[in-house]
From TrEMBL:
Source organism of the structure: Salix viminalis
CDD domains cross-referenced by the UniProt entry: MPP_PAPs
Catalytic activity line of the entry: a phosphate monoester + H2O = an alcohol + phosphate
Co-factor(s): Fe cation; Zn(2+)
Pfam families given in the database record: fn3_PAP (PF17808), Metallophos (PF00149), Metallophos_C (PF14008)
Signal peptide: 1-35
Descriptive protein name: Purple acid phosphatase
Alphabetized InterPro entries for the sequence: Calcineurin-like_PHP, Fn3_PAP, Metallo-depent_PP-like, MPP_PAP, PAPs_C, Purple_acid_Pase-like_N
Keyword field: Glycoprotein, Hydrolase, Signal, Zinc
Domain Purple acid phosphatase Fn3-like: 63-168
Iron listed as a keyword: no
Length: 598
């Protein structure tokens, strides 16, 4: 029987074991396990009942994979060729990738069967796909080439491949830049297989034009595999090069390739400043694996459009629901690999979403199992935010003429709470003469959305969303409030208490009378429908994937653009033009109440 091959890329996660193995499995029955994702859909890994596998190794089925050594040229990912020959092919045959290659389910910790979804995290494959993915004649010929397999119940293991060896499974990978607590700080977080007791992590960095580089020693280690270093006293708007590394016990060094970034302008600095904002992107595999449910169909398009325009982007805000890992740690490694071209070049600031934080009895505001038991730990470990308490994801950050107040919708934000006090302090602290553009953001829609399920509730918002906050947005004259969670795009008029305060739709000037609310949750995950009722405050709605780009030309001119991920073209836009005195002008509920006597 003649062999044919299938190809797919395997990311080389530093947290993996030194070896991988491929399993060829078959089953007579397909079932699906719901993964508790708000709004429907499934975590693809949650479809495989791998813990029910029975052994039926058959010499007539052979699966081989090569090259046997990965990363020999220092690659972060590599294409692997897998050959399948099966004399008893079935439409249900599938291939899974497992790491470590010698894992044993009997060593897995006890499971909380009340909440944890099956299959359990310990036994789940990293990737998978049906054997007939690239060859529809597989069931007749027993030959195939494709990418990886999807899930089924009561699987039968018929063949195990040779193992594949990582040349250096501990190498530093996937750098992630973020603003520090001061405008002249940049943080670098990365993934590594070295424990703190076997190697000292560092970042070698300096101005791009300089020959001499500085070495910044370790600032913090979290969960051994994720490293955080602070680069301080940066000169504004300056290009720096850097690379991560580890000093081993024998004095030798293991280092990454060289990356570069441009430092932030100082607060109020007058220069061209460009910000991208979106939410709910998720991850996808370029080989098509793990995407049987097609849960994040726009993820790669959004990623690729940002990479294509990266020279014209200064900072990115991903406002919640990052990989939708739901407890599968390999999904975080694959997500960080997917966005590495972005995160290694510009600050990648995140907000906390329900799929990062929510879990019953864990302190989250919503008592749902949407995080798969993560409770925010992977998110706050892998991505730095300049919060006072990183378990509480609210923080402020500056970029030149912009001041950002990022709220955490998975913790209570209502009046009288700790977060409410933070939000007011953040909004009140900005000097609008230096930083005219004031932006508020949170994951869930704490403002306005005509999404279908909000429409059924009649409130067109997250329950209790804007009741406490709208008076703060009005008092401090917030320009734009961004939200995710709802997987589409929608823009409102400048609004206060359900009333449009301007008839203009594309060019705003003069006094700040209300806040423009934008839902930008179409980063890549399955789309959300709109209500059949179109509120009078809804100016533009789009059932598609996309993101927003803000461009501040100076202290008086701001350009807003909504771009679709499919082509990167602008489909909605507006401008704001005003002077500092326009921000100071009193409008309804924006200044202290007065009487003739006062």
């Amino acid at each position: 029987m003649e062999e044919t091959a299938f190809h797919f890329p395997v990311k080389v996660p530093a947290t993996s074991s030194t070896v991988l193995v491929f399993w060829l499995l078959c089953s007579a029955n397909l079932t699906f396990v719901q993964a508790g994702i708000h709004g429907g859909g499934e975590q693809a890994l949650a479809k495989i009942d791998i813990y029910k596998t029975t052994l039926a190794l058959d010499g007539s089925a052979v699966i081989t994979a090569y090259p046997r050594t990965l990363g020999s040229l220092g690659e972060d990912s590599e294409w692997i060729t897998v050959n399948i020959v099966n004399e008893k092919p079935s439409a249900d045959d599938w291939v899974g990738v497992f790491s470590p290659a010698n894992f044993n389910a009997s060593t897995c910790p006890p499971q909380d069967e009340q909440w944890q979804e099956t299959p359990y995290i310990c036994t789940a494959p990293i990737k998978y796909k049906y054997a007939n993915h690239s060859n529809q004649e597989y069931t007749e010929t027993g030959k195939s080439y494709f990418e990886i397999s999807c899930g089924l119940s009561n699987p039968i293991l018929v063949s195990v491949s040779n193992t594949l060896q990582f040349l250096n499974p501990k190498a530093p990978l996937y750098p992630r830049l973020a603003h520090g607590k001061s405008w002249d700080e940049m943080t670098v977080t990365w993934t590594s297989g070295y424990n703190i007791d076997e190697a000292v992590p560092f970042v070698e960095w300096g101005k791009k034009a300089c020959v001499v580089h500085l070495r910044e020693q370790l600032a913090g280690v979290i969960l051994d595999s994720y490293i955080l270093v602070f680069l301080k006293d940066l000169w504004p708007n300056t290009v720096y090069t850097y690379r991560m590394g580890h000093i081993l016990s024998d004095g030798s060094c293991v280092q990454s390739k060289v990356f570069s970034f441009k430092s932030s302008p100082y607060p109020g600095q007058d220069s061209l400043q460009r910000v991208v904002i979106f939410g709910d992107m998720g991850k996808a595999e370029r080989d098509g694996s793990n995407e049987y449910s097609d849960y994040q169909p726009g993820s790669l398009n959004t990623t690729d459009q940002l990479i294509k325009d990266l020279d014209n982007i200064d900072v990115v805000f991903h406002i919640g629901d990052l990989p939708y890992a739901n407890g599968y740690i390999s999904q975080w490694d694959q997500f960080t690999a997917q966005v590495q071209p972005i995160t290694s070049t510009v600050p990648y600031m995140i907000a906390s979403g329900n799929h990062e934080r929510d879990w019953p009895n864990s302190g989250s505001f919503y008592d749902t199992p949407d995080s798969g038991g993560e409770c925010g730990v992977p998110a706050e470990t892998m991505y730095y935010v300049p919060a006072e308490n990183r378990a509480k994801f609210w923080y402020s950050t500056d970029y030149g003429m912009f001041h950002f107040c990022i709220a955490d919708s998975e913790h209570d934000w209502r009046e009288g709470t700790e977060q409410y006090k933070f939000i007011e302090k953040c909004l009140a602290s900005v000097d609008r003469q230096k930083q005219p553009w004031l932006i508020f953001s949170a994951h869930r829609v704490l403002g306005y959305s005509s999404n279908s399920w909000y429409g059924l509730e009649g409130s067109f918002e997250e329950p209790m969303g804007r009741e406490s906050l709208q008076k703060l947005w009005q008092k401090y004259r917030v320009d734009i409030a961004f939200f995710g969670h709802v997987h589409n795009y929608e823009r409102t008029c400048p609004i206060y208490q359900n009333q449009c305060v301007s008839k203009e739709k594309h060019h705003y000037s003069g006094t700040v009378n209300g806040t423009i609310h934008v839902v930008v949750g179409g980063g890549g995950s399955h789309l959300s429908g709109f209500s059949s009722v179109i509120p009078n405050w809804s100016i533009y709605r789009d059932y598609d994937f996309g993101f927003v780009k803000l461009t501040a030309f100076d202290h008086s001119s701001l350009l807003f653009e909504y771009k679709k991920s499919s082509d990167g073209k602008v489909y909605d836009s507006f401008t704001i033009s005003r002077d500092y005195r326009d921000v100071l002008a009193c409008v309804h509920d924006s200044c202290p109440a007065t009487t003739l006597a006062t």
